[in-house]
Amino acid sequence: MMTQKITVGLMLLFLGTHISITQQAATAQTPTPPASTTKAICPAQLGTSIDAVINRPSFNRVRWGILVQSISSGQTLYSRDAQKYFTPASNTKLLTTAAALQQLGANFRIRTSIYQNANGVLRVVGRGDPSLSDTQLQTLAQQLQKKGITQIKQLIADDSYIQGDIVNSTWELEDVQSDYGAPIGSFILNENIFSIKLIPQTIGKPLQIAWNDTNEATRWRIVNQSTTVNKNQESNINITRDLTGTVLRIQGQLSQDSQPYLVTLPVVDPNYYFLRSFRTVLAKQNITLGQTLVLNGGSNQQEIAAIDSPPLSELIKVTLEDSNNLYAESLLRALAIKQPRVQNKSTADIGLDVIKTSLTQLGVDPTTYFLVDGSGLSRRNLISPEALVQTLRLIAKTPNSAIYRAALPVAGKSGTLKNRFRNTPAEGIVQAKTGTLTGAVSLSGYVNGAKYEPLVFSIMVNQSEQPVRNLRPAIDDIVVLLTQLQRC
Questions:
Q1: pLDDT digits (tens, 9 = 90+) for 315-329
Q2: Which residue of 10, 242, 290, 462 has the lowest C-beta tally within 10 Å?
Q3: Contact 210/196 with Cβ under 8 angstroms?
């Protein structure tokens, strides 16, 4: 049965729900230039052509930042406020993933371990693997079963690996209570989100609530003020959540013939969400579990079970292609793995220091950006088009270039660009990262044209009252111009 996915927001005590459709990830492709393009533009004409787009009357109050350069030579073909700061949105992920590749290497994996200590006590050590799911928990339980373990007296979840707040203090309240702003810590399971399904009933009856996780069903008090209405009537659902994180209020209506709504929510406490889920998985393997605790630190003796994440190359692909905030924030914290602990400094802040060090070593000017998170969800991030172009151009000259570029969405083909640039000269030959916040839209990446050398570009729009549906086509028009360049 088809379902629609809605995400929950918060404003003061309550905020209305936002609706989003989850796109299916597609395999990244290696772009190849088309045999021909429909129009040719000489480099001398590019400036006038781009200006014609950004000077449209509807953009009179819009702030544009644009930089277009040759990958090989660094020659600038177009620049507009390229040195100035902009709110980058998810273009931030370009810096986070570039630093992760340079610092950790494409084969780096994040390990979750279970250690056996004396007196039947087991310790599970989470290290922030964003890919951990119930399937991996089953693998851990099976490994314990093969060791002959049928009873665990006490299971300790060691939460010492990642220190600091589980959500960034600069994120909007709405974001913190939405699935795309899920908490980040030592333990991440099922991307730290869970779902409920709202199902129409007979007319006049409240919607039925079906839980995908029975453990979570016991954690929430539901105030169901929804109703089922006649067929073909408008469906209007609003999900609100209070500040305590224990009450869900369901309001609105679904028509009797409508499909169920899938409501996706972030968990409140990742550590205990992990422990509750692991208890259920262990029971399926006939392993009884006694007391569970969450502790910060302690000794780990013999490792008896472990699961590794996919390699960093695959984690980066999810981060960039799907613009996954949780993966980006996990990679930010992974950057701190080899760094000494600093008193009163969070793991994320140490990771931010490593980003700056790594990108500076790459050749990116450290004064061209200012970061406070790894995903771009914060509006306090400031990045110039110059910083993004430098990062893209310089990493293209490293051994990690192919892995980095393969992780980017391909125009008209995959990820967040799957439905953009179709049936245009850009389809299949542009690899770029999207970025969207209210009033801020960006796109930065590579152009592999048929009649001109490969280009790197960054286009950023800020301080706009225009809806995204008006801004994206203009950005796309500029990118298409770049694909039509030829030497004249």
A1: 999 999 999 999 999
A2: 290
A3: yes
| Strand bridging mode 288-295 / 261-266 | unpaired
Q: Could you give the count of Cα atoms lying within 13 Å of 97 in the half-sphere of its Cβ?
A: 35
DSSP for 339-372, written as a single string: SPP-TT--HHHHHHHHHHHHHHHHT--GGGEE-S
Fold of 111-167+270-310: D-tyrosyl-trna(Tyr) Deacylase; Chain: A; (3.50.80)
DSSP state of 378: S
Annotation: CATH topology of 31-107+313-483: Beta-lactamase (3.40.710)
* Side-chain half-sphere CA neighbours of 304 within 13 A: 20
CA distance 194 to 263: 8
Look-up of token digits 């490593």? 354
Q: How many angstroms separate the first and last alpha carbons of the chain?
A: 55
With the C-alpha atoms ordered 303, 306, 311, 317, is the resulting torsion angle positive or negative? negative
Encoded amino acid at 318, one letter: V
Contact at 8 Å (CB) between 415 and 432? no
Who has greater pLDDT, 309 or 258? Answer: 309
**For residues 84 and 320, what is the distance between their CA atoms, to the nearest angstrom?**
24
Give the pLDDT confidence of 380-439 residue by residue, as tens digits. 999 999 999 999 999 999 999 999 999 999 999 999 999 999 999 999 999 999 999 999
CA distances (Å), origin 485, targets 26, 39, 40, 423? 28, 9, 6, 18
Q: Where are the beta strands (DSSP E) in 126-245?
A: 151-158, 193-199, 208-211, 221-229, 236-241
Strands 221-229 and 247-255: parallel
Q: Report the C-alpha gap between 420 and 441 in whole angstroms.
A: 14
Q: Do domains 31-107+313-483 and 111-167+270-310 have the same CATH topology?
A: no
- Global pTM reads 0.90
Please give the radius of gyration of the chain, using alpha carbons only, rounded to the nearest integer.
24
Residue with tokens 């093969």, as numbered in its chain: 146
Q: Label residue 245 left, alpha or beta by phi (over 0 means left) and psi (-120 to 50 means alpha).
A: left
Q: How far apart are CA 466 and CA 443, in angstroms?
A: 16
Q: What is the pLDDT of residues 128-170, one digit of tens each?
A: 999 999 999 999 999 999 999 999 999 999 999 999 999 999 9
At residue 455 the predicted structure's pLDDT band, cuts being 50, 70 and 90, is very high
Per-domain residue ranges for the chain?
A: 31-107+313-483, 111-167+270-310, 173-266
b/e code 96-120 from CB counts within 10 Å (16+ = b): bbbbbbbbbebebbbebbbbbeeee
Q: For residue 301, what pLDDT is reported?
A: 80
At 450, phi and psi to the nearest 5?
-80, -30
DSSP 89: G
